[in-house]
From TrEMBL:
Keywords: ATP-binding, Kinase, Lipid biosynthesis, Lipid metabolism, Magnesium, Metal-binding, Nucleotide-binding, Phospholipid biosynthesis, Phospholipid metabolism, Transferase. This is Diacylglycerol kinase. It comes from the Bacteria. Its cofactor is Mg(2+). NCBIfam families: PRK13055.1, PRK13337.1, YegS/Rv2252/BmrU family lipid kinase.
């Protein structure tokens, strides 16, 4: 039976250029051996999520999420909870495209992004995060500063990309207020005031690749960042350091790897909203679990740094050792 692919695309994502390339994109997946069809998302809630679930349950082998990080997050939430999960491909058409950036998928050329499927080696299994009953593929965050993502108008995001977040962030910095919280992670606990927390699965946060400089895509760990300092001057210092990746050594920052994290506000009157992949994902208390190598994705394997593929590189090394071990010395009889 011929393999099937379903393209789930957002017709209003980014600068709305995706539709003009759709025929050529369909042709690429047909060339790769997939009987391919497309679905345009609607303004209805969970449109992409529901279609992804339907296609997966009907036995589609490949789901292509074409749009911004919001569309991709919906698609992942549509398939991550299923026992049988199709392979996932990404065609970025949003503003920051964090996940595509981490997978080194071409972000300015949708057809080039689709053509990654033509190389059978461009596949590997990637970690996914679970936050209570929701899933995320890039980052979970909480704290006053992260609330700026809710306050940047979508039109401003489309026009200015992540520069819009900087503009709004500068405006909100004076309002940053720490929250007294408990953060339990892999047998340890931070208990005290924190301004911001991040749990990252990739190295790209809002288009910046130094905030989580050593993130691995498949090692089973979150990169957990807890920002303790909350003064205006301190936050500005840390933001400057984050652009260079030197914030991880700052004493005002806890930076660790963790598989299981529970975040709980200690004052019942404090509301701690949690941001999942750039959108509101509910309020803490929240339990985060890293689902190790949970989804197979299509990526630009030639461009992803070796240190971002811990488990994949280890498998390649193990396979190489086994292969060498099974070879006979041609000089021996």
């Amino acid at each position: 039976m011929r393999k099937r692919a379903r393209i789930i695309y957002n017709p209003t994502s980014g600068r709305e250029a995706l539709r003009s390339d759709l025929v050529d994109i369909l042709a690429v997946y047909e060339q790769a051996g997939y009987e391919t069809s497309a679905y345009a998302t609607t303004p209805e809630p969970d449109s992409a999520k529901n279609e992804a679930t339907r296609a997966a349950k009907e036995g589609f082998d490949l789901i292509v999420a074409a749009g911004g990080d919001g569309t991709l997050n919906e698609v992942i939430n549509g398939i991550a909870g299923l026992e049988k999960r199709p392979t996932l491909a990404v065609i970025p058409a949003g503003t920051t495209n964090d996940y595509a950036r981490a997978l080194r998928v071409p972000r300015e050329d949708p057809i080039a992004a689709a053509k990654l499927i033509l190389n059978p080696d461009n596949r590997f299994k990637i970690d996914i995060g679970k936050a209570n009953e929701n899933y995320f593929m890039n980052i979970a965050a909480g704290g006053t500063l992260t609330e700026l993502t809710y306050e940047v108008p979508s039109q401003m995001k489309s026009l200015f990309g992540y520069a819009a977040y900087f503009a709004k962030g500068a405006e909100l910095l004076p309002q940053v207020k720490p929250v007294e919280m408990s953060i339990k992670y892999d047998g340890h606990e931070f208990r005290g005031k924190a301004s911001t927390i991040f749990l990252a699965l990739t190295n790209s946060v809002g288009g910046f690749e130094q905030i989580v400089p050593d993130a691995s895509l498949d090692d089973g760990n979150f990169s957990l960042i807890i920002v303790k300092d909350s003064s205006l001057f301190g936050m500005m210092q840390l933001m400057a350091k984050a652009l260079k990746g030197t914030h991880v050594d700052d004493p005002r920052v806890i930076y660790v790897k963790a598989k299981d994290v529970v975040v709980t506000p200690l004052d019942k009157d404090d509301r701690l909203m949690i941001n999942l992949d750039g959108e509101y994902g509910g309020d803490a208390p929240m339990h985060f679990v890293n689902l190790h190598q949970h989804l197979q994705v299509v990526a630009n394997m030639d461009e992803i740094p070796d240190n971002a593929l811990t488990a994949a590189m280890q498998k390649m090394e193990d396979d190489f050792v086994r292969e060498i071990g099974g070879m006979k010395d041609p000089d021996q009889k």
